[in-house]
Design brief:
Length: 539
């Protein structure tokens, strides 16, 4: 029976070997009109046999001019093997003409055209923050974006050695899609963890991705780095992952550095450091699903200081011609220098995380707040990193506490967040812990239906719960399962005709919507069993 199951799993993996990618690749030829849909990505490849002393820092870009007069500068990059790439995407339909500019004569002053057709129905463009609603995220076409993130630092490594496709990555991303996650917090490169690894991993080496001997963004490897040049094969593999995420409409929250994962980075502000940083920005900015993050825990671990982070942000904004959103995984930095970031990232493990997030929401009235790490790391088959909370329901509650303070949030599972990646948890043996992704499926559906971006925290209406209210009078009250009953007298005004129903955070179940009684406490039908949300609407 076990052999049959293994065969079924292998067969299902093989069925995913052909990756459907939105990254269209075309070789440059004179008089060719390239065609792409709006908000999709096109690589135009040029070949030049001429040797360049430092190809990864060489001057190469194109100026695109739309028929309406709009001008877009697009950086190019060296792709190895004498290939040079202009990577282009457009938020405008219609006709573009381009001219290249380069240090190399063979790829200088090449002219061409691109026709951009209408967008696919499920492609809403890049993530933006509108001036008329600066505490919320939207897509470029105006569609609200309820950010629900998932941490997977080693995602780049999951199918790195598979030359044919990304079956494991696709399987995991499909799970995320099915359960409401629409952003992955990830590193360009992580090497290994410093904490003691679970001995059970020795029995399942297929789940261990830390310490790769042959994966490195520079020449050489992490133990013996050669900073004289970059490794184009590394970035070609990362292209596949970012492109697949774009295809599935999952944002890549790309942390360019990480200090506590044992990476042998070059010294700060050296030529090698700048070469790596600039190359990442040049190579990935055309993807509409990119969100920049300078570094995970940017001011921790004694490497970077504020001046360095300032310089990186300025460098990014100079080089990013698409103006993708940028933040820093460090609340102290974001709090002290809010004008340098597009949204505030917070890493907070406090027991009163609701109050901490509410303080941030109140303090930064012109920025979205994103709790990127709340100290809850749901348990898995392996003990990877426990933080302060591992129980699935407790971790879920902390996510809701953030949401009811009006801020966005992130989910961590110990089976995918770091060096351990169990990409197919629901196909593992019985004894393996199965993560509660489904809880977040219910969360995403709830807040998409009730329009989170229109909800505001009303702390003076909290009572023993947490309150969100929209401008039409719809009220949500989050109530812990230990709560005996909540008075919420403001819902019982004599001059208001209100309804109520309950939502179970663990099952996604809704009770029937009924009229509110003017007497007695509101009591959850799942008291002692599940946290619940009381939903009250004005008739």
């Amino acid at each position: 029976m076990q052999n049959v199951l293994k065969l079924l799993i292998v067969t299902s993996l093989l069925s995913f070997t052909v990756v459907t990618s939105q990254l269209k690749k075309e070789n440059y030829t004179l008089n060719t009109v390239f065609k792409i849909p709006k908000w999709e990505v096109l690589d135009i490849t040029f070949t030049a046999n001429q040797n360049v002393a430092s190809p990864y820092t060489a001057n190469f870009y194109a100026i695109f001019t739309h028929s309406n007069g709009t001008v877009q500068q697009v950086p190019g990059f060296y792709n190895g093997n004498k290939e040079w790439v202009i990577r282009f995407s457009s938020s405008l339909e219609g006709n573009w003409k381009f001219t290249t500019y380069a240090d190399l004569k063979k790829i200088h002053h090449k002219k061409g055209s691109v026709t951009v057709s209408s967008a696919a129905t499920n492609n809403h463009g890049a993530l933006v923050i509108p001036k008329n609603d600066p505490q919320n995220f939207y897509y470029e076409d105006g569609t609200p974006y309820f950010l629900l993130a998932f941490e997977c630092d080693w995602l780049y490594a999951l199918d790195y050695h598979n030359k044919k496709g990304l079956p494991k990555t696709e399987h995991l991303l499909n799970l995320l899609n099915q359960n409401g996650f629409n952003q992955v917090v990830m590193n360009v490169f992580s090497y290994d963890v410093s904490w003691t690894k679970d001995s059970k991993l020795k029995q399942h080496p297929e789940h261990e991705f830390g310490g790769p001997k042959d994966i490195f963004p520079f020449l050489g490897n992490n133990n013996n780095p050669n900073y004289s040049a970059l490794n184009p094969e590394f970035f070609k593999k990362l292209d596949r992952t970012i492109s697949l995420m774009h295809n599935k409409r999952i944002a890549a929250h790309l942390m360019i550095y990480v200090w506590n994962k044992l990476v042998a980075w070059p010294n700060m502000n050296t030529d090698a450091d700048n070469m790596y940083f600039d190359y990442v920005v040049k190579r990935y900015q055309a993807f509409p699903n990119i969100v920049w993050d300078i570094s995970k825990e940017a001011l921790y671990y004694g490497r970077a200081d504020e001046a360095y982070i300032h310089g990186r942000i300025e460098r990014l904004k100079t080089n990013d011609k698409y103006n993708r959103l940028v933040s820093v995984h460090d609340y102290k930095y974001c709090s002290n220098f809010p004008d340098k970031v597009d949204f505030i990232s917070s890493q907070n493990w406090s027991h009163n995380i609701y109050n901490k997030m509410l303080e941030a929401k109140t303090k930064f009235k012109n920025k979205p707040i994103f709790n990127i790490e709340h100290g809850g790391y749901e348990e898995s088959m392996y003990t990877v990193f426990t933080g302060d909370y591992t129980n699935a329901e407790t971790c879920l509650r902390r996510n809701y506490m953030c949401l009811f303070a009006g801020v966005y949030t992130t989910y961590y599972w110990q089976g995918t967040s770091w060096n351990v990646i169990i990409y197919n948890p629901f196909e593992q043996p019985k004894e393996f812990y199965k993560p509660k992704f489904i809880y977040f499926n219910y969360m995403q559906k709830l807040f998409s239906k009730l329009q989170f971006h229109k909800m505001k925290p009303i702390p003076w209406h909290n009572g023993s719960g947490y309150n969100l209210t929209d401008d039409k009078g719809t009220v949500l009250i989050y109530i812990h399962k230990e709560n005996y009953g909540i008075d919420a007298a403001f819902l019982k005004k004599k001059d208001e005709n209100r309804t109520m129903q309950w939502f179970n955070t663990l099952t996604g179940e809704f009770t029937k919507e009924v009229a509110i009684k003017k007497q007695g406490k509101f009591k959850s039908p799942w008291a002692e069993k599940a946290d619940a949300i009381l939903i009250s609407r004005l008739k």
